[in-house]
Write a structure and sequence with these properties.
globular, 323 residues
């Protein structure tokens, strides 16, 4: 009998805690709710109107959205440059930005385990980086991304909460409270950087390196700019039909919903959240047409570029090994 089974069978062994089971139940309830929402909304959509709205988007507008997407990806790659500064590794700037770009594109389309984790480990290791340094770069990049999220989401929810549909019967008070809480966490992170910058903290057996106040502020600035730019892309494709703060807030809600559900590329989740929260302000056809265009310029186009870059990177590594 395996050791773990023997320990469980012994009298007096601690009972399995209820908290993990409660989290699993809550997760499955959330997943079922999202699935129901997607199916419910899909049945009410006139897909001919969506395609007409997509085709009606001006080409210059889509090109501008694609340029903004490129700027967003460039901002994201700087997160790994911050990780380089933290670890002190000597990979060149274009190389680091290329790895981050490839990883981000695959992360968006296939999930964080495939893109954010697996591709970073494969590419960085083939470029000679140690596993410990890769882990630190990955962790710092993820921290940068989500600490900026807290700042932007906190400001969006506290200063300009969502205008929810009347049938929801929920006021904006709860969103304001959530926004203030998120801003407090982001501010607390900066305070920690100011007080304990350069030190290593141990949390549940894990050693966490606290960056300097300057580095922490740079994390917040770069990540907040990236999240804000993502919201601006959707707002641009909606052609100003909805105020920018509203679009940004809904995108932030959809981002968390996509992470929780683990659906690759948040497929269906992004659209369901936008339709649920904004369809009372703008018709579904233009709304979904704009979201399809957003997927094209922010998900599919970068993925095609990343596939080419990944092929070139693999060829170069193999060529170096042969020589």
């Amino acid at each position: 009998m395996p050791g773990s089974a023997r320990a469980a069978a012994q009298p007096g062994a601690p009972a399995r805690p209820w908290w993990p089971w409660l989290k699993r139940i809550a997760l499955w309830v959330f997943l079922c709710g999202v699935a129901w929402l997607i199916v419910r909304q899909a049945r009410t959509i006139e897909w001919d109107e969506v395609l007409d709205a997509l085709q009606a988007l001006p080409l210059a507008l889509v090109a501008a959205a694609a340029a903004m997407a490129a700027a967003s990806f460039a901002l994201y790659t700087t997160f790994d440059l911050l990780g380089r500064h933290l670890t002190g590794h000597r990979l060149r700037t274009p190389t680091v930005m290329g790895v981050a770009f490839i990883s981000y594109a695959f992360n968006l389309n296939f999930g964080s385990l495939v893109g954010g984790v697996a591709f970073r480990y494969r590419l960085y290791s083939r470029l000679g980086l140690r596993a410990s340094d890769i882990t630190r770069v990955l962790g710092f990049s993820m921290l940068t991304n989500w600490i900026g999220y807290l700042l932007v989401a906190g400001a969006a929810f506290a200063l300009s909460p969502l205008v929810l549909p009347d049938e929801w019967r929920i006021d904006s008070g709860g969103l304001r409270i959530l926004g203030v809480a998120l801003l407090a966490v982001a501010t607390g992170y900066l305070a920690m950087c100011a007080l304990a910058g350069g030190r290593a903290l141990t949390v549940r057996g894990h050693i966490l390196e606290v960056p300097s106040l300057r580095m922490g502020a740079l994390q917040l600035l770069l990540s907040a700019a990236n999240w804000s730019l993502m919201g601006a892309i959707v707002w641009l494709l909606l052609q100003g039909r909805i105020d920018y703060p509203q679009v940004l807030a809904v995108l932030l809600v959809a981002a968390v919903a996509g992470v929780i559900t683990h659906v690759p590329a948040g497929l269906g989740v992004l659209e369901a959240v936008f339709v649920a929260l904004l369809s009372h302000q703008v018709p579904q056809g233009p709304l979904l047409g704009a979201l399809l265009a957003y997927r094209a310029v922010y998900y599919l186009l970068p993925l095609m570029v990343a596939l080419v870059l990944y092929g070139i990177t693999e060829w170069r590594v193999r060529h170096r090994r042969k020589t």
